[in-house]
């Protein structure tokens, strides 16, 4: 390999990854859209991921942009609010802008990713 290519490869290895890089690398769980619902089973936040799988967040997460009340949740519903409006963690009193998720058997598990937004 040429010296220039080796230098580029070494630069990439030393590169510091920002939260944005982490999101770009983990598109499978990248949150694109979410909507706040009040359903018959209580308050829910619906997350629609890139692969269009619906994931419900724990109750402690509320939508910063307000909530939409519906009597029954329809799983095929496609009307979702704007992208990246932010979520608030009621338990830790933090706001999140971009969140990455691991999908668990019951609901989404929050990974340790914080956009750095203050409350």
What features would you describe in this structure?
This protein has 119 residues and is of the alpha+beta class. The protein has one domain. It contains 2 helices and 9 strands. It has helices at 3-14, 19-25; strands at 31-39, 42-49, 54-56, 61-63, 68-69, 87-89, 94-96, 101-103, 108-110. It has a 4-stranded mixed sheet with strand order 3-2-1-5, with no helix packed on it. Strands 4-6-7 form a 3-stranded antiparallel sheet, with no helix packed on it.
Task: Give a quick summary of the entry.
By secondary structure, this protein is an alpha+beta fold. Helix content is 16%, strand content 31%.
Q: What's the number of structural domains?
A: 1
Strand order of the largest sheet: 3-2-1-5
Sheet with the most strands, sense and barrel status: 4 strands, mixed
Order of helices and strands: HHEEEEEEEEE
Portion in strands: 25-35%
Estimated radius of gyration: 18 Å
| Alpha-beta classification | alpha+beta
> How many individual β-strands?
9
Helix content: 10-25%
Q: What gap, in angstroms, lies between the N and C termini?
A: 50 Å
What's the overall average pLDDT, rounded? 45
Question: What's the SSE blueprint?
Answer:
Layout: H1 3-14, H2 19-25, E1 31-39, E2 42-49, E3 54-56, E4 61-63, E5 68-69, E6 87-89, E7 94-96, E8 101-103, E9 108-110
Parallel strand pairs: 1-5
Antiparallel strand pairs: 1-2, 2-3, 4-6, 6-7, 8-9
List keywords for this structure.
single chain; 119 residues; alpha+beta; 3-stranded antiparallel beta sheet; 31% strand; disordered C terminus
């Amino acid at each position: 390999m040429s010296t220039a290519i080796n230098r580029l490869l070494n630069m990439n290895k030393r590169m510091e990854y920002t939260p944005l890089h982490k999101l770009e690398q983990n598109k499978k769980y990248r949150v694109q859209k979410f909507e706040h619902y009040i359903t018959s089973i209580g308050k829910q936040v619906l997350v629609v991921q890139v692969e269009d799988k619906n994931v419900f967040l724990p109750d402690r997460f509320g939508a910063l942009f307000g909530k939409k009340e519906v009597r029954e949740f329809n799983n095929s519903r496609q009307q979702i609010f704007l992208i990246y409006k932010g979520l608030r963690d009621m338990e830790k009193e933090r706001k999140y802008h971009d969140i990455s998720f691991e999908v668990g058997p019951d609901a989404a598990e929050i990974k340790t990713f914080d956009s750095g937004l203050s409350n």
